[in-house]
User: What shape does this take?
Amino acid sequence: MPVWGLCPQSAQDDDPPQQAIVLVLPLEYTAFCLLHRDRYLRYTRERVQDAWVSQKLVEAALGNLATIWPAVISSSRPAAVAWRLLDALISSALRDRRAGVAQPVDAVHRCCHRPRRMR
Assistant: This one.
């Protein structure tokens, strides 16, 4: 049984009202998200140290996963695909944030980081 979601349409002032686009998500995808979302969120919060950004990154990763779901679910390790997507988004966000910052900003790498001594 598929899960239904609505995607509201934006309308210009002179456009007639439009119906929302109906999204049909496979039940397996929904179950996968429910099973893994909290773990992805905890991991992302540890690395990013920002609850709002973490939420957005997990939403983006799961949204990207939905677009390739048939390939993901037919792969030998669907969770590994999801982790790679999430890690790529986190790494990109941290790189963007780190521009000009000398120390790592995520907790995992900060505890392993040894600052260079100035001579």
In short: Helices lie at 27-48, 51-67, 69-73, 78-98, 107-112. Residues 113-119 have pLDDT under 50 and may be disordered.
